[in-house]
Amino acid sequence: MFKKVMIANRGEIAIRVIRACKELAIKTAVVFSEADAESLHVRYADECYFIGAAEPSQSYLNIEKIIEAAKKSGCEAVHPGYGFLSQIPAFAEACTRSSIEFIGPPAEVLKRMGNKVEARKAASEAGVPVIPGGLKPASRIEDAIETAEEVGFPVLVKAVYGGGGKGMRLVKNEDEMRHVLETAMLEAESSFGKREIYVEKFLPRARHIEFQILADKKGKVIHLGERECSIQRRYQKLIEETPSPFMDEELREKMGESAKKIAKAVGYVNAGTVEFLV
Known about the structure:
This protein is α/β, with parallel strands linked by helices and 278 residues long. It has three domains: 4-104, 3-Layer(aba) Sandwich (Rossmann fold), CATH 3.40.50; 132-201, Dna Ligase, domain 1 (2-Layer Sandwich); 205-277, ATP-grasp fold, B domain (D-amino Acid Aminotransferase, Chain A, domain 1, 2-Layer Sandwich). It has helices at 11-23, 40-44, 63-73, 89-97, 107-113, 116-125, 141-151, 174-192, 249-266, and strands at residues 4-7, 27-33, 47-52, 77-79, 101-102, 155-159, 169-171, 197-201, 208-215, 221-228, 232-233, 236-237, 270-277.
């Protein structure tokens, strides 16, 4: 059990982690920017460390400053919360180099699963069905059209990195592909720093089902059931419902086992989510 954990986040996210630590009698340290000097998480934690200006790139996204604060605090582990650095492999690697436990998946897993094409490959290799589409980025318009013709229009053009609908476009024919591909690439680059995209079959009126998984370092993986996330606007979830009114026990069992297969195949550790379209 850790004696002290640093939370590399702010606001409600940090408060939730602090509360969990207090229940386990673990001391907490937090970081804060100029904008958050009076925030509740700063007052609620046992220790707090200033890390810079309000701009996230100068504070909550600054790996060097957070590692420096963690070393000063003497913490044994860093909890990234979600968002900010939680899915950045370089942050997990920096923690490891500094002999600080990163509470999250290993850096190599973050690298692979943060890349949607690699994540699709991992699922396919684990024997889990994937939506028809490319298993490599479409670097040229000809590549995108070729994949779209193989799986059949309409298709989705999606950013290889990131999410939230950024860099995603519905394409109904070859002419549309020629018009929207470069725009999707530019949006992906401005949002995630990389312009790679790939193509997959568009499934109209599909159900969006997510399974929460937990995995330890000894290879044990469990799932905590599903969430129905089908009600969305512009690819952003509006309502999450559990259990899903769509699922029956047979499908729930099959999808839950598939989620665990993927986690085991990539060596996943900690909490994660596997998303399905049905």
